What we know:
Order of helices and strands: HEEEEHEHEHEEEHHEHEHEEEHH
Number of strands: 14
Radius of gyration: 26 Å
Strand content: 15-25%
Distance between the termini: 63 Å
Helix content: 40-55%
Largest sheet: 6 strands, mixed
Shape: globular
Amino acid sequence: MNWKKMAAAGLLAAGMAVLFAGCGGSGDKKAADAPKKPDKIVAGIDDTFAPMGFRDENGEIVGFDIDMGKAVSKEIGVPIEFKPIDWASKESEIASGRINVIWNGLTVTEERKKVLDYTDPYLNNKQVFVVMNDSDITDAKQLAGKRVCAQEGSTSQSAMDKQPEVRDSFSVWKLYPDFTSCFMDLESGRADAVLGDSVLINYYMQKKPGQFRVLPGVVANEVYAVGVKKGDKALVDLLNEGFKKVEASGEASKISEKWFGTDLSVKAK
């Protein structure tokens, strides 16, 4: 090989080295720019909110949101730990960092958007009144002068706060820390009606067929989403990625059918 050929070969090798170095640098930069996945996601729940998240007869936390959490966790490759919290203090729990997300039938509201960011909606819901099946109340207008209860810190409370003329027509408007206590009052006769999430009320009605009756009409139409600390876009994007995959695989529909007997899942856009 003469010196001209050797020089040409040297220039070619140098050029290839620069090319590969450039490619490697670009890939490394993209990897560095990609948000790092968390080691774990701690999700705050109300462990009395059947069928979204509650304790079974063995004390294990089960429910629709628990199954969805497991499915999303599998898709995104990050463990999700469900931690019982005081539901009325959920916003302060996430602000303090004791939990990373609020995931337990959390309704999207404009008020909550001021302090939380949300994932895409994953379940449809509505606010309705329920009475005992043998009650003489057949219409929500007949609740004037009656005893009505709901869960404290819930969108049932918010719905009535937006309709003070309806709320103030009740002889008693009682708020409990959990929805189960509302149903206990209803069954014992200490309350005439309960305002709550249709997904929860339908679950109770399935557990005790023929005992309860939903009044006609809807107080509010809602959707559930996961609440995330304000500004944590990386976590919102990560969870949305998981929800889309769970929906696309048909797993979201299966989980909904398991807990509600019908597909209430919100279809990913």
